[in-house]
Amino acid sequence: MTKTVIESPAELYDLIGKTLGPSPSMEITQERINQFADATGDHQWIHIDAEKAANGPFGATIAHGYLTMSLAAKFMPEIIEVRGIAMGVNYGTEKTRFPSPVTVGSKLSATGTVVSVEEASGGIKMILRIVMQAEGAEKPACIVDAISVYFPA
Fold first, then answer.
1. Which spans in the chain are helix H?
2. What global pTM score does this model have?
């Protein structure tokens, strides 16, 4: 694991274009997939029916795309820590893609590239392109441009 630690939001400007990470890996379990299905009401068989999914297009159950995307919130603080802030807020996302399915048992990790940094509403807004990759997969599982605003202390 490689986490970048900066002492103030102003230092984010120095990171534009730099790739950060990788994060530690985490296993995608069927329990996590089922909990996400229950939370969202998305109980499609490709996610929760292991027997049917074994004979389906992916050979196993797969994580919901939005489950994979939501893991950006887990991986981001493992990639970067911004100190000297009163608070940081999730401002949203841009350009999310799911190039490859995440089968149950996959181990995901993430890297992040700082796309842009600018002043915004009394804080500093950063767009971090988070690339989540399943171990051994040819293509990333998810690429999401996560937008955060950090308010200096």
1. 30-40, 45-48, 50-54, 65-70, 72-79
2. 0.94
